[in-house]
């Protein structure tokens, strides 16, 4: 029954709807380009499957990561707020998954509070890797960093 009066006799359920007919492939000049059906050299389909096996792989200039020696560190010795948040979150997760606690507990049961206490006593056994713009990196243990 309709809300506007009248019956539903004129409703056919969309069975007789007509739609535009799709264009045949040969009418659209960009059909092959848009659908990835263009051909490469020698009639082979273009794409990743048409790579020549005989060619040597091309070096894309990937920078190898090298570790900076500890004596030649150039980054700041201060623990940033982002590193602090990541360290505390990671250590709290470890403690919540029953990792051994490295400081004496004084009634604390919250893993985050335990992690904060471990950080204050410099007992967190994690290493922070700081990447440099040239692709090298420096590793700092949490106990080496200044936390204030």
TrEMBL record:
Keywords noted in UniProt: DNA-directed RNA polymerase, Nucleus, Phosphoprotein, Transcription
Biased composition (Acidic residues): 1-30
Predominant place of localization: nucleus
Keyword Transcription on entry: yes
A family per Pfam: RNA_pol_Rpb6
Recorded GO CC terms: RNA polymerase I complex; RNA polymerase II, core complex; RNA polymerase III complex
Annotated spans, Disordered: 1-53
Molecular functions per Gene Ontology: DNA binding; DNA-directed RNA polymerase activity
Localization per Swiss-Prot or TrEMBL: Nucleus
Keyword Transcription in record: yes
An individual GO BP term: transcription by RNA polymerase II
SMART domains per the UniProt record, alphabetical: RNA_pol_Rpb6
Family of this protein: Belongs to the archaeal Rpo6/eukaryotic RPB6 RNA polymerase subunit family.
NCBIfam families referenced in this protein's UniProt entry, alphabetically: PRK01099.1-2 (NF002207), PRK01099.1-3 (NF002208)
Name this polypeptide is given: DNA-directed RNA polymerases I, II, and III subunit RPABC2
